[in-house]
Design goal:
This protein is an alpha/beta fold and about 230 residues long. It has one domain: P-loop containing nucleotide triphosphate hydrolases (Rossmann fold, 3-Layer(aba) Sandwich). It contains nine helices and eight strands. The strands form two sheets. A five-stranded parallel beta sheet has the order 2-6-1-7-8, with helices on both faces. It has a three-stranded antiparallel beta sheet with strand order 3-4-5. The structure holds 2'-deoxycytidine-5'-monophosphate (DC). The site of 2'-deoxycytidine-5'-monophosphate (DC) has 13 residues, from helix 2, helix 4 and helix 8. 2'-deoxycytidine-5'-monophosphate binds next to helix 2, helix 4 and helix 8.
């Protein structure tokens, strides 16, 4: 086993419930929650602030390399610090949803964030959540999960999420954006969204958060008892 505990990866499309489950699982296990989507979002926000176009691959790669970006455990979650400022809320807007999926296509940005993610996760004791955790960043992870749900269920969850935050959005628009993000995630040339080899696939469409968490914890227990 790794020095600090298991390295667990959770991948899947937007709205499959990954973030909630990854956060709760990390909390239960006393592991670090590595929210890699937040890192792409932070790059997108920094680019927007500096007036860098999401098409300018060279400038985005340079920006990522010099970015002062930190994920700091806070309460039961994670604070995203950009240039010393807490941007945890600001990276969760519909505009950053869209911009982050554009910067995530840039090979130089993916390479730069992969290095940062490995530095944070390789020793173990981590639940790493994203789109390419089990396939590219941590292919030798101890335990890999792939969470999914139908696009309609994912759009409904996202719509409720946005409404809670005070955005007035239509279900149809959210569904359309989810399908568009799926397409971009699956079709990009570098590290597209795939079910990683050896991953346990869970469809969360008709499961509660508690049920999904229970299922993951059972797998973790099984893995831990097989290495002890
Ligand atoms: O999970 P999220 O919605 O916070 O992710 C934001 C964007 O970043 C999303 O468009 C997918 C992309 N992403 C990625 O390409 N690879 C990851 N490991 C994590 C996120």
């Amino acid at each position: 086993m790794r020095p600090k505990g298991l390295l667990v990866t959770i991948d899947g499309p937007a709205g499959a419930g990954k973030s909630t489950i990854a956060r709760l699982l990390a909390q239960k296990l006393g592991y670090l929650y590595l929210d890699t989507g937040a890192m792409y979002r932070a790059v997108a926000l920094a680019a927007k602030r500096r007036g860098i176009s999401p098409e300018d691959e060279e400038a985005l790669t340079r920006l990522c390399r010099e970015l002062d970006l930190k994920l700091v455990p806070r309460g039961d979650g994670l604070a995203v610090m950009l240039d010393g400022e807490d941007v945890s809320e600001e990276i969760r807007t519909p505009e950053i949803d869209r911009l982050s999926s554009m910067v995530a296509k840039v090979p130089g940005v993916r390479e730069c964030l992969k290095e940062r993610q490995r530095a944070l996760g390789e020793a173990g004791g981590v639940v790493a959540e994203g789109r390419d955790m089990g396939s590219h960043v941590f292919p030798d992870a101890d335990l890999k999960f792939f969470l999914t749900a139908s696009p309609e269920v994912r759009a409904k969850r996202r719509e409720q999420d946005l409404r809670r935050k005070g955005y007035s959005v239509s279900y149809e628009k959210v569904l359309q954006e989810i399908l568009e993000r799926d397409r971009r995630d699956q079709e990009r040339e570098v590290a597209p969204l795939v079910v990683p080899e050896g991953a346990i696939l869970i469809d969360t469409s008709s499961l509660t958060t508690e049920e999904v968490l229970k299922r993951l914890l059972e797998e973790v227990e099984r893995r831990l008892s097989s290495v002890s």
